[in-house]
Design brief:
Blueprint lengths: L2 H21 L5 H8 L3 H14 L6 H9 L3 H8 L5 H11 L4
Helix pairs in contact: 2-6, 3-4
Length: 99
């Protein structure tokens, strides 16, 4: 497979992942972190870093809006629930206490 085709396939897979995460707004970021070690915010940070590596200025908020499909504060108000004690304990067991 040539590099251009690989890049196009990777981009398509990324777009599908983002769309899936937008559709599955019932899945909380803490659950994603507990199960996979990354969440929507991680994807946003990686997206921003990739842009900056290519000389494209992008704010974290702009990257999050691309991943969430709306401003983060709107998504949080609409979809985010309070983490349960069990979710927090699982997070702390694998990632330490949040800052």
């Amino acid at each position: 497979m040539d590099d251009q085709t690989r890049t196009e396939l990777e981009a398509a897979a990324f777009r599908q992942l983002v769309e899936h995460l937008r559709t599955r707004s019932d899945v909380q970021n803490i659950d994603l972190m507990n199960l996979s070690g990354f969440c929507r915010n991680c994807l946003s940070k990686w997206y921003r870093a990739a842009a900056e590596d290519r000389g494209i200025a992008m704010s974290y908020d702009a990257a999050r809006e691309l991943v969430y499909g709306m401003p983060y504060d709107d998504w949080k108000a609409t979809h985010q629930t309070e983490a349960t004690p069990e979710q927090r304990a699982a997070y702390e067991a694998t990632h330490g206490k949040p800052a």
